[in-house]
């Protein structure tokens, strides 16, 4: 794909960190940051408040409230559409959002509708960030609702990737891996005597309808199957149940793994593209099944949190008797608490 014709869109804080990293990695990308809080924008090196940032007027964060976010983006729909129309050359718009938050999670459905109307010729990809299973009940609830919103506009989405926050120890590690993997996927092109992947091929792979997967192969493993299995295990993207795909792109180091053996690990229904380079091993699958197992785990975590909340018993008021004779026959009874209504209450402080 031609990077100058890719528009990276960050909805909210979590998404902004990834888009900021991609812009830092390659200045040829175009980027836009949408947020409801200036505080979230300030740390980003490539977010220019006068150039590529849209702050919802009169707001100061969403407080992880998806309904508040929905109201904000609907109130700003015309202005957002006008801004997007300033990028008519965009061939691929990649929309990033954290599913567990508020600003991005609540806005994703409406934003895709606005983007589809503003630039009808563009392909819209989505990178949605799933929560860690150690997060709280609100995170899980927001994620399920966001999942349903995305599925409500799925016909307007080409490629969708789900980031699995359970795959690394910190958000920084996750973000760095996503940034590197996506940049390699968008840089899939290569020219070699034994095979080429041009911009159109890369475009076709990266915008295939369905779920997309990016796999980085480590050097020095005993065979291609072992390398693929390890890449799947270490991938920060949620994995499908099967690895059937419409398109397969393979770009490997020269004199390294055999791309034909790599391709045997997958069922490809349309086309496989192969080329070589000197620096990295990357495999990109386009048009896979949706990784439903990941969202089922979130739903199970939500159900578990909900059950534990229902079974919780909280004691707010506890009277402690400090009389040492408690338990003896002559122990005086504790005076019963009296109830008063508003008309009976009189206070005097002298």
TrEMBL record:
Name of the protein this chain belongs to: Cell division protein FtsZ
Organism: Clostridium chromiireducens
Ranges of residues in domain Tubulin/FtsZ GTPase: 6-157
GO molecular function: GTP binding
Taxonomic lineage from the root: Bacteria, Bacillati, Bacillota, Clostridia, Eubacteriales
Keyword Thylakoid: no
Pfam families listed in its UniProt record: Tubulin
GO BP field: cell division
Keyword set, alphabetical order: Cell cycle, Cell division
Transmembrane segments: none
């Amino acid at each position: 794909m031609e990077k100058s014709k890719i528009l990276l869109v960050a909805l909210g804080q979590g998404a902004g960190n990834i888009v900021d990293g991609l812009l830092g990695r390659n200045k040829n990308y175009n980027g836009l940051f949408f947020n409801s809080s200036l505080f979230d924008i300030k740390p980003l090196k490539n977010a220019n408040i006068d150039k590529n940032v849209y702050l919802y007027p009169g707001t100061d964060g969403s407080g992880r409230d998806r309904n508040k976010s929905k109201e904000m983006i609907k109130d700003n729909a015309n202005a957002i559409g006008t801004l997007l129309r300033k990028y008519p050359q965009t061939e691929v718009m990649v929309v990033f959002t954290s599913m567990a938050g508020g600003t991005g999670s609540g806005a994703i459905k409406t934003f895709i509708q606005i983007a589809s109307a503003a630039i009808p010729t563009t392909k819209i990809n989505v990178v949605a960030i799933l929560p860690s299973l150690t997060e709280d009940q609100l995170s899980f609830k927001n994620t399920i609702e966001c999942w349903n919103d995305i599925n409500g506009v799925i016909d307007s989405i080409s490629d969708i990737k789900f980031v699995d926050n359970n795959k690394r120890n910190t958000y920084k590690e996750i973000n760095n891996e996503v940034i590197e993997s996506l940049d390699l996927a968008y840089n899939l092109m290569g020219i070699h005597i034994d095979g080429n992947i041009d911009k159109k091929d890369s475009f076709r792979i990266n915008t295939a309808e369905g779920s997309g997967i990016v796999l980085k192969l480590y050097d020095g493993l005993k065979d291609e199957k072992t390398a693929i299995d390890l890449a799947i295990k270490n991938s920060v993207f949620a994995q499908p149940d099967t690895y059937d795909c419409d398109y397969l792109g393979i770009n490997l180091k020269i004199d390294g793994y055999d791309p034909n053996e790599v391709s045997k690990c997958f069922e490809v229904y349309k086309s496989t593209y192969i080329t070589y380079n000197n620096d990295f091993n990357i495999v990109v699958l386009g048009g896979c099944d949706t990784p439903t197992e990941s969202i089922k785990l979130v739903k199970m975590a939500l159900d578990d949190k909900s059950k534990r909340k229902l079974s919780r018993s909280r004691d707010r008021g506890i009277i402690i008797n400090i009389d040492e004779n408690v338990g003896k026959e002559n122990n005086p009874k504790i005076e019963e608490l009296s109830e008063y209504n508003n008309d009976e209450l009189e206070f005097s402080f002298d």
